From TrEMBL:
Keyword Ligase annotated: no
Organism field: Ziziphus jujuba var. spinosa
Record-given protein name: Cytochrome P450 81E8-like
Any one GO molecular-function label of the UniProt entry: iron ion binding
The entry's keywords: Heme, Iron, Metal-binding, Monooxygenase, Oxidoreductase
C-alpha cells in the first residue's frame, strides 16, 4: 500500500482531490454529473485528474485547456471487455484505436452508409418508426391514468428498431415485436449493456 501511494505521488499529474484506494474518486461523483465535475474544476483547476476505479480520467473544463489537449495522444479509446468480446478485439469503429484501421472504417462508413442516397432510401423506415413511437406514447397517455414514461428507453428502442429494420427488415422492440427472435435479441442487448459497463 505504501509503495502504491509513493508511486502515485511521483507521477507528474494534474491536480486531483484525495482518492480512496480501490474506488479512487467514484465516491465524489454525484448526480447530476456535470455539476459535480464543475464543482471539482472550480476547486482544483481547469484540468483535473480523476481515478475511477482502475481507469484514469482527465477532466478538461475550459476552452483553452481543451484546445491544448486536443491531440492524437487523447484520441484512443479505453480497452474494455466489451471491446474485446463484442467488437472483434477492438476492431469496430466505435472501439478501435485512432490510426489507419480507424480511418479506413470511417471512410468506408461515410462513403457507403451515410450518403445522401442511402439516407433517402431509408427515410420511410425512420418515418414509420417515429410514427409508431408517437402512436404508442399517445395510447399510453390516453388510458386515463397517469403513468411515467421512460423516454430514454423509448428512444433507445426507436434507434435499435430503425437500425434493425434497415439491416434485417424486422422490429425487435415494441408491442408487435413478440416473437422468439425479438426476445432473444432483447436478452442479448441486456447482456451487451452489462458488458459495456465493465
Amino acid at each position: 500500500m505504501i509503495k502504491f501511494i509513493k508511486h502515485e505521488n511521483h507521477k507528474n499529474l494534474p491536480p486531483s482531490p484525495p482518492a480512496l484506494l480501490i474506488i479512487g474518486h467514484l465516491h465524489l461523483l454525484k448526480e447530476p454529473l456535470h455539476r459535480a465535475l464543475h464543482e471539482k474544476a472550480e476547486k482544483y483547476g481547469a484540468v483535473l485528474f480523476l481515478k475511477l476505479g482502475a481507469r484514469n480520467v482527465l477532466v478538461v473544463s475550459s476552452l483553452p485547456a481543451v484546445e491544448e489537449c486536443n491531440d492524437i495522444v487523447f484520441a484512443n479509446r479505453p480497452r474494455t471487455l466489451a471491446g474485446k468480446h463484442l467488437n472483434y478485439n477492438h476492431k469496430t469503429m466505435g472501439f478501435s484505436n485512432y490510426g489507419n484501421h480507424w480511418r479506413n472504417l470511417q471512410c468506408l462508413t461515410t462513403s457507403e452508409l451515410f450518403t445522401t442516397n442511402r439516407l433517402a432510401m431509408f427515410s420511410g423506415v425512420r418515418l414509420e418508426e417515429v410514427q409508431l413511437l408517437v402512436k404508442q406514447l399517445f395510447l399510453d397517455s390516453s388510458s386515463g391514468t397517469w403513468a411515467k414514461v421512460k423516454l430514454r428507453q423509448k428512444l433507445v428502442e426507436l434507434v435499435f428498431n430503425i437500425m434493425m429494420k434497415m439491416i434485417s427488415g424486422m422490429r425487435y422492440y415494441g408491442n408487435d415485436a413478440v416473437d422468439q427472435e425479438a426476445k432473444e435479441f432483447q436478452n442479448i442487448m441486456g447482456d451487451v449493456e452489462e458488458l459495456l459497463g465493465s
